[in-house]
Design brief:
Elements (H helix, E strand, L loop, with lengths): L2 H15 L1 H11 L5 H32 L4 H20 L10 H13 L3 H14 L2 H13 L3 H23 L1 H40 L1
Helix pairs in contact: 1-7, 1-8, 1-9, 2-6, 2-9, 3-6, 3-7, 3-8, 4-7, 4-9, 7-8
Length: 213
């Protein structure tokens, strides 16, 4: 098993998921719930995110094959999309939903209208905050990049690690918010953005080389 590929897959996918950027929105949406209820919301959200990513990981090749999309096209498109996400992170968007008093008030009023915790767990926590076009494209591209069982298993391991760590990030989000603060979140997001920039460019270059190589 290629440990280096697991690390690369984990780093790129975790940077895209960026659970740290979900913390502000998560805290606002779950402010009215008890500790036990918050854990249930996190668990449901993580299970949904894992199921969604695994679905595209296992069926991604069939999906792109059905639409006649080539692997180089997926790599180039994925690289461009990830680059835009990385650029957005570097420019200073510490949260996937910009936090402001007006937005916070809206989110609180919205969460008070939701009686079913499943709704918060799936929308917006799972989709679009944790799993969106970027993570889905990355998973499909990574699975398409590997042809053997070990390589595909490496991607599945990377997905599992991302979900497990994201679970603990949200579980201890209150402590992390106090410890890191706004400046800490900005620095962390920019660092993840820099890593994702390099990965996205490499992904796009690999796709270009497959076309002209």
């Amino acid at each position: 098993m290629d440990v280096q590929f697991i690390i690369l897959a984990f780093t790129s996918l975790f940077s895209i998921l960026n659970p740290f950027g979900v913390i502000p929105t998560y805290l606002v949406l779950t402010s009215q719930y008890s500790k036990v209820e918050k854990i249930k919301i996190i668990r449901k959200s993580m299970l949904a995110a894992f199921a969604l990513l695994m679905m595209f990981a296992l069926l991604g090749n069939q999906i792109i094959g059905f639409f006649g999309i080539s692997i180089p096209a997926i790599k180039i498109t994925g690289g461009v999309l990830l680059f835009l996400i990385a650029l957005d992170m570097i420019q200073g968007n510490t949260s996937k939903v910009e936090k402001s008093p007006k937005l916070e008030s809206h989110l609180k009023s919205h969460s008070e209208e939701i009686e079913d915790m499943d709704e918060i767990a799936i929308v917006p926590l799972t989709v679009p905050l944790l799993t969106g076009p970027g993570s889905i494209s990355a998973v499909i591209a990574m699975m398409a990049q590997t042809s053997d069982f070990d390589g595909k298993l490496s991607v599945i391991i990377a997905i599992s690690l991302c979900i497990i760590i994201s679970y603990f990030v949200l579980k201890f989000s209150k402590d992390l918010e106090k410890m890191l603060g706004k400046i800490g979140f900005k620095v962390l997001t920019k660092m993840m953005g820099l890593v994702l920039t390099a990965i996205s460019i490499q992904m796009a270059l690999d796709g270009i080389l497959m076309v002209f190589g």
